[in-house]
Structure formats: structure tokens, C-alpha cells
Amino acid sequence: MWTVGSRALFRRELLRFLRRPKNTFMPPAITNVLYFAVFGVILGGRIDEIAGFEYILFILPGLIVLGTISNAFENASFSIFHGRWNEYIHETLTSPLSYAEMIAAYVGASAVRGLIVGLIIAAVGRLFVPISVANAAFLVATMVVIAALFAGLGIVGGLLARDFDDLTVMNQFVLRPLVFFGAVFYSLTILPTTWQYVSLLNPMVYMVDGVRYGLLGYSDFLELAPAAYAEIVPLASLAVLATLTALVVALDVYLFKIGFGLSD
Amino acid sequence: MPPAIETADLRKEYGDLRALDGLELTVEEGEFFGLLGPNGAGKTTFINVLVGLVRKTGGEARVFGNDVEADYRRVRDAIGLAPQEFNVDRFFPIREVLIHKAGYHGIPTDEAAERADEALKRVGIYDKREERFDWLSGGMKRRLLLARALVTDPDLLILDEPTAGVDVQLRRDLWELVTELNEEGTTVLLTTHYIEEAERLCDRVAIVNEGRKIAVATPEELKRRGTDTVSVALEPTPATAPALGPYAHGSALSGGRLDVRVDDGSRIAPQLLRDLEADGYEITDLEISRTSLEEVFVELTGRDDRTVTRSTAEERSNEESTAERGQPEGVV
Ligand SMILES: Nc1ncnc2c1ncn2[C@@H]1O[C@H](COP(=O)(O)OP(=O)(O)OP(=O)(O)O)[C@@H](O)[C@H]1O
Ligand SMILES: [Mg+2]
Predict the structure, then answer these.
(1) Are B155 and B109 members of one domain?
(2) Residues B127, B238 share a domain
(3) ipTM exceeding 0.85?
(4) What is the pLDDT of residues A54-69, one digit of tens each?
């Protein structure tokens, strides 16, 4: 899978965004400085600690997730759509790369962009509040999985889109609401029971909770789940997310294979 | 060795439109093969089926014996395509575009860089290597497409109207380059609307129309299928065109000469002369002018012009003798 060919495509995809940091990394950096300033410093001063954490620290994992997944999605969907729009994706399609190799490269590079943005946000957060990582391995695994998941979804988006507006719509109207109701800014424990259950239908909740667990060692699920299951709850979320990622990536490969949105 | 390209009953439908309608073509390895046809004939569709940009509706297509769908990787590895439309990565300077393309074909970066330089030099735009595609002139863009096709060292080079909108000098450069490549063993498939180009370069040409093959032959053979004109100067000059045998598809007097349209000028001329002499004329001059390939092309693809003459001409040329091929044309 990781052949000379797929590495070449991976490299091309990386260089595309690495060479234009003003377009790719500046915006999330600035946005997050604003988030931390407003939610963390200005509002945070008036908000009690949540689950024993300063508010600014409590929202940090959610902001990292938000930045990571939206950038992974945006990169993949843009790259695929732009390549279709200007037809230079033909350079890839008419090459002897297998469909799996193509997807590995596209998903890999977009996931990397998401992860870099995640790191930038963590670094911005570090300017406001000291951070110590609770479960490094779990954190890394969760971040990689969700970055790949949204890179994979971004490819589907890039194949479905018919014009550039479609891309904006996906980002603004699908991704953002999921994130905002994904327990980024509050703890599930403060919700009425019914809304706690409803929240469980939002896949974003699991991601934010997973990253929060990895970074802070705190998980809403651990609080809410019956004590007997407490041990396995974070791992179970991670396993479900990993499975979902595998399915989405398999879908990407399939769509490339049938030429969905790519060939006439 | 399997043929470079082999298709059977190849079909592609866009709704009701049949872009390819049972196309059957074989291009032998090492051949310089031309694909001629009017706009919308299905040439680009045919090419795109080979490289996987168009999914065929039915039929079979193989490249060097590999099925274009089942063995897509081998097929695509063998092909270098310079497409009709520009489809070049705009994010990178052209040298890098070529390095990436070579990379996708499994060529390691160092070697890919060497090949990119080589290809750019070969098409004469090496000094533009740090430019982006958008900054190139139209002719340079065409050259880049060729360089991109060459950078992977293909066994089958496909050129879809490579000389469209290109100046005379560049056209000649391109001709020279692809001829050279063909001599080095690369099979070439060329589509073009410049009939002269096909005639000059191609070992064989296929004429397609509405997704179907109308004829495949050497340019020479094709020209023989068209009607020739035998022009004779007579003494005395006739007042009206004399009656001739059924071999004459038409005759006209112009400038004191009699022009007779016949299938095959060199074969019919002796008979024509005998008939005219029998009528009491003396022949003072005779010229045979061949149909140009362009005229044949128009005749074969023009819809209202499917005369019986043409089909008999086709039959004849299928069984033609080799003796006939060497016959001189023009002034006898
Ligand atoms: N994506 C498509 N959707 C619908 N019809 C298409 C599509 N692509 C091509 N066609 C139709 O298929 C037919 C063949 O087109 P094609 O591009 O293969 O012709 P061509 O021989 O290359 O013509 P030209 O000399 O103008 O390049 C045309 O009638 C064209 O309109
Ligand atoms: Mg065409």
C-alpha cells in the first residue's frame, strides 16, 4: 500500500498545503486565539470549574477536535473537488496507482493536515493555560482515528460536490452544528437525562469525550456509565470510531473504483 | 506479442447518444496509427476508455493484451497520454508536476527529477521549468502535455489533437519528435483534424464516424479509394464532352481539356485513351490527379454521400494486387 507511487501522491498532497501556510494554518491559529480569549479568559472567568477543570482547559479538547476534523475534511474535499474541477485529478486516475493506494495517500495527507492544526490549537491553548497530557497513547490513537475519519468523509464530500458552494455548505451546515452540540463547550453531566441520551446519537460526542479523556483524563462517559463498565468505556468508543473510519475509507476506495464523480 | 490496442464491439452510451457504437480496432505494436473523424466521432471517448476516464457500456478493450478494467494498473502504466483538453496540476511549477506524475508511476524521486528535466528539454520548455502551467503560452501548454506523457517512458503514446492551435514551427518539431519516438519503438496513437499530418506521419489510419469504424488502411490505400481525375488534352478539342464507358463517374470540359472522374486513374487511363482514340481524337497530354486524403475523408464521413461507387471501390481495394501499388502517378 505504501509504495513509491502512493508516497509520491502523499508528498504532492502534503506540499500543496504546507507551501501555503497563510491559507492553511493561519486561519485556525487566529480563530482559536479568539476562542480562547473569549470563551476561556473573558467568559471563563465567570464560569465555574467544570468537572474540576478550569473552563478554558475543559473546552481545549473540543476545540482541538473541531479544528482537526474540519481541516481534515476541508483539505480532502477541496483537494478532490478542485482536482475534478480542473480535471488534473486525471493525472492520478490515469496512473497505475491502485485505488487503495490513491485513497491511502489522499486520506493520509488530509489527516496530517488535521493533526497539524490540532497541534497548533494545543500550542495556542498552552499560551493561556498549562497542559499536562493524561493518557498520551490513547490521545494519539484517538486523534489519528478521527483525523482519518474526517479525511475519509472529506473525500466523499469532494466526490459528491458539484460546485464550490457545496463544499462550504458541508462544512458550515453539517460539520459545525455537530461539533457545537458535541459537548465541546459543556459537560454532558449538566444536561437533563433525556438530552444526555439524545447527545449519544451525535458521533461528535464520542470524539470530544475521547480526546478529553486522553488529554485531561476526564470523560463524561466514565461519570455517566455504570461503574462496572467504566474501565472499557473509552476503549469501546475508540474501537467504534476506528471501525467507522475503516468503513468510510473502504467506501472511498469503492467510490474510486466505480469512478463515482470521477469518470463518465 | 499482443497488439498495442485491441477493441471489439466497444460501446459507450450517454443516455440515448452512442458515442461509441461497436468500435472494433487493432493497433499493432510499434505502429504509428492515426484516428481520424469529424467532431463528435468518438475519438476522445475511445482514448478515455483505454486510460479509465470513461467507463465503457459494453464490449472489450485491451492494451498490450491487458484488459482495461481487470488489469487497469498494467494498462495505465503502459500509456502516456497527451489529452485534448488541458488537465494539468496548477498548484506546482511544471517541473514538479512532471516529477509527481512520474512518481505516481512508481519512479523514485531522484530518477523522476532527472526524467522531468529530460522531458522538458526534449519538448523545448526546460527554461520554463519553474513556471506554473497557467503562465505558459498555448503552444507551451501543448508541449507540456507531451512532456508529461513522455516522463513515464510509455510503450504506447496517445496524442489527442496534439497540434491543435499550434504554430507551424512547433507542429514540425512535434512531428519530428514523435517520429523519432516511434522509430525508437514507441507505439503511437494520434488523433488529428489535420489530414496532412495523418498522411505524413501514420502507417495506418482509421476513419471513424458516429462511434463506428468506416475504414482502416494506409493513407495510400485510402486515397486510392477516392475517385481520381484523369485530365486529357484532345486534338481536335471537342465541343461537348464525349460519351464514355461506365467507368466514368462524370466528365467535364474545362480550359480545352477533358476531365474524367474515375475510381482508379492509373488503371482506367489506357481504356479511356482507347475509347477516345476510337472516337477519332488524338491525345496530346494526359494527367492523373489523385484524390487528396482530405477529399476521401470528406467523402467517407459525409452522410449524404454514400454512393455505390464508394462501396465498390472499397471491395476492390481489399483484393488489390501489389503490382498496382508501385504505379507512378501524375504526369505519364
Ligand atoms: N460526458 C459526456 N456526456 C455526454 N455526452 C458526451 C460526453 N462526452 C462526450 N460526449 C458525446 O460523445 C460524442 C463523442 O465525443 P468525443 O469527445 O469522443 O468526440 P471526438 O471524436 O473526440 O470529437 P472532437 O474531434 O471534437 O474532439 C459526442 O457526441 C459528445 O457530445
Ligand atoms: Mg476529441
Answers:
(1) yes
(2) no
(3) yes
(4) 888 888 999 999 999 9
The better pLDDT of the pair A235, A178 is held by A235
Residues of B in contact with A93 (CB under 8 A): 51-53
Name every chain A residue with its beta carbon within 8 A of the beta carbon of B81. 94
**pLDDT band at residue A228 using 50, 70 and 90 as cut-offs:** low
Is residue B332 included in any domain, yes or no?
no
B51 and B160 inside one domain: yes
B266 and B160 within one domain: no
Per-residue CA distances from A95 to B146, B154, B169, B189, B284 (Å): 15, 11, 31, 18, 64
Does residue B14 share a domain with residue B150?
yes
B79 and B101 in a single domain? The answer is yes
Whole-model pTM: value is: 0.85
Pairing of strands B66-67, B58-63: antiparallel
* Residue B331 maps to a domain: no
Pocket test for ligand 1, best of B18, B44, B158, B210 (most atoms within 8 A of CB): B44
What is residue B106's predicted lDDT score, i.e. its pLDDT?
A: 95
Highest-confidence segment of B202-211, B214-223, B227-236: B202-211
Inter-chain CB proximity B103 and A8 less than 8 Å: yes
Q: What pLDDT shows up at residue B261?
A: 86
Q: Which helix (H) or strand (E) holds B12?
A: strand B5-14
Query: Does A93 sit within 8 Å of B100, measured CB to CB?
Result: no
Q: What's the number of domains chain B is made of?
A: 2
Question: Does residue B137 sit in the same domain as residue B232?
Answer: no
Range(s) of the domain holding residue B272 = 227-290
The answer to whether the CB atoms of B52 and A3 lie below 8 A apart is no
The amino acid present at A227, given as its one-letter code, is A
B277 and B304 fall within a common domain: no
CATH of the domain at B180: 3.40.50.300
Q: Whole-number mean pLDDT of chain A?
A: 90
The answer to whether B22 touches B9, Cβ cutoff 8 Å, is: yes
User: What does the pLDDT look like over A113-162, one tens digit per residue?
Assistant: 999 999 999 999 998 888 889 999 999 999 999 999 999 999 999 999 99
